[in-house]
């Protein structure tokens, strides 16, 4: 009898303290299709399509339902000079992209934010090489920014319930 009274508190303590609570909840955004709009004042290469495609790959699932969820992305590109390199025949440039995003549902704004990506490239006397280096640099920055944006959107928790 004494054993039961000694063991019973330990069993009750163990049962109440080890309750399972899931860390992750079901994400309401995964089951609904998000309409993505990318805006920019300037048209450079295929940057708008690249961002839209990369974000869409991360956020939208094939079997998702149509909804009124809308992700608006605004891109701004800025190029600044870094100076002359040691060989005196090439210059360094810095390419930076500012990405502002807003996610809306039927009721209004769910979340918004800002991301920034920077990289540098060299400009030399070869015009084709300059174009290729700018395109390559911008492609790498935009892929990084769009993957970060997809992860942010999918992992964010909202203050109110999402109404698709």
Distance between the termini: 59 Å
Quaternary structure annotation: single chain
Number of strands: 4
Radius of gyration: 25 Å
Mean pLDDT across every amino acid position: 85
Residue share in β-strands: 25-35%
CATH fold field value: Double Stranded RNA Binding Domain
Summarize the biggest pleated sheet: 4 strands, mixed
Record keyword descriptors for this entry.
164 residues, alpha+beta, Double Stranded RNA Binding Domain, 4-stranded mixed beta sheet, elongated
Question: Care to give the gist of this entry?
Answer:
With 164 residues, this protein is an alpha+beta fold. Helices cover 35% and strands 30% of the residues.
Question: Can you offer a commentary on this structure?
Answer:
The chain is of the alpha+beta class and 164 residues long. It has a single domain (26-155), classed as Double Stranded RNA Binding Domain. Helices cover 35% and strands 30% of the residues. Strands 1-2-3-4 form a four-stranded mixed beta sheet, with helices on one face. Strand 3 (91-104) and strand 4 (109-123) form a beta hairpin. Helix 2 packs parallel to helix 3. The N and C termini lie far apart (59 Å).
């Amino acid at each position: 009898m004494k054993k039961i009274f000694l063991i019973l508190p330990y069993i009750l303590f163990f049962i109440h303290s080890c309750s399972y609570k899931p860390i992750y909840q079901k994400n309401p955004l995964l089951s609904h299709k998000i309409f993505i709009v990318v805006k920019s004042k300037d048209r450079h290469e295929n940057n708008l399509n690249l961002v839209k495609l990369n974000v869409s790959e991360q956020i939208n699932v094939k079997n998702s339902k149509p909804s009124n969820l809308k992700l608006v992305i605004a891109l701004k590109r800025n190029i600044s000079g870094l100076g002359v390199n040691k060989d005196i025949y090439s210059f360094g440039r810095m390419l930076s992209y500012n990405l502002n995003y807003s996610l809306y549902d039927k009721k209004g704004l769910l979340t918004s934010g800002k991301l920034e990506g920077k990289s540098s490239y060299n400009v030399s006397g070869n015009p084709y090489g300059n174009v290729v280096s700018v395109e390559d640099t911008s492609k790498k920055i935009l892929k990084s920014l769009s993957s970060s944006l997809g992860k942010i959107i999918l992992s964010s928790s909202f203050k109110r319930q999402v109404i698709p």
